[in-house]
Amino acid sequence: MANLALGAAMTATTELAADDGDTTGFFGWLFYSDGFHAPTVEEFFPPAIFGEGTIFEFNRIMLARVIAAAVLILIFWLVARKAKVVPTRGQSVVEMLLDFVRTQIVEQVMDKHNAKRFLPFLTTLFLAILAFNITGVIPFINIAGTSLIGLPIIMALWVYVLYLGVGVKQHGLGGYLKLSLFPPGVPKGIYVLLTPIEFLQVFILRPATLALRLAANMMAGHLLLVLCFAATQYFFFEAAGAMKAMGTVTFAAGFAFTLFEIFVAALQAYVFVMLSAVYINMAIEEEH
Amino acid sequence: MDTTTLAEVSGNVATIGYGLAATGPGIGLGILIGKTIEGMSRQPEVAGQLRATMFIGVAFVEVLALLGLVTGFLFT
């Protein structure tokens, strides 16, 4: 956030010099403003660090992803290297995370046998999404790796291919299509309405909403934080008179939203994995 | 007859779109979470199951509000 606020400060200062505005009179002094500039979607296209213009363009968001992945691997390597039956403090935290995914997410949705089969995939997904989300509130990184749609699309496609794959493997191609497009237990005439809806659901909406939900949540969260802290900076250093006091309000809001973003980061990882588990379970479960 | 402009609003009317897009999901979330709490207080022993189901439902409702957010950026 520090460098973002600095950037906002610089633009604000130049505009202050360019546009004096109406600063006469008491109200002019009290409510003087040179026009605060809210963050835009440009936030998510930061300048490249290297390889600009090529498909290997490497910017701040890519760096955040690389750091998150490296830290995740490092933590698990350190813990798994000397795993003991009686866990140390660090190991028990990691075990708590793994246990949470198993008991609170996967086994809530699937039966024991299937849970064991898909647990490694779903745990990987959960930890990866959590790591990529949490970079949004880590100081000096301050952007979630999942806030650009690319990474969520890869993850959603992974789930999409997996649930179609296991569905076809379980029921055969015709069986799976029949199960998902013609759900049993409804009158024949309803299929005219139901089948197109189910087709959209299974083949388009499920993966699309999975990716979109994650990316849009992280994007909204980041914009909210930028807005709060840029406004704080603006109120404290640029705005006149009584407006300075508003800075404390926006700072408190920024702090509260930071805590909220930590919650959202965990919640989105939970929701993504929960829905993935539900979709996979829908594909493999028998007719009923 | 000359008119005097006392106040003026400038900007794009599309910016109120997200507010409109959030009302439906807002009502939906209210009903969804309220009903879950009702269920939990009636039967505390299935609270975990209700919570898990609620989060699935919340995810579906929430995506509508987020579509409103995304379209705001797409159609400026």
Automatic annotation (TrEMBL), chain B:
Coiled coil: none
Residue intervals of the V-ATPase proteolipid subunit C-like domain: 14-75
CDD domains: ATP-synt_Fo_c (cd18121)
Subcellular location: Cell membrane
A GO term, aspect molecular function: proton-transporting ATP synthase activity, rotational mechanism
Primary site of residence: membrane
Membrane topology reported for the UniProt record: Multi-pass membrane protein
Cellular-component GO terms for this entry: plasma membrane; proton-transporting ATP synthase complex; proton-transporting two-sector ATPase complex, proton-transporting domain
Xref: HAMAP family: ATP_synth_c_bact (MF_01396)
Protein name: ATP synthase subunit c
Native source organism of the sequence: Demequina activiva
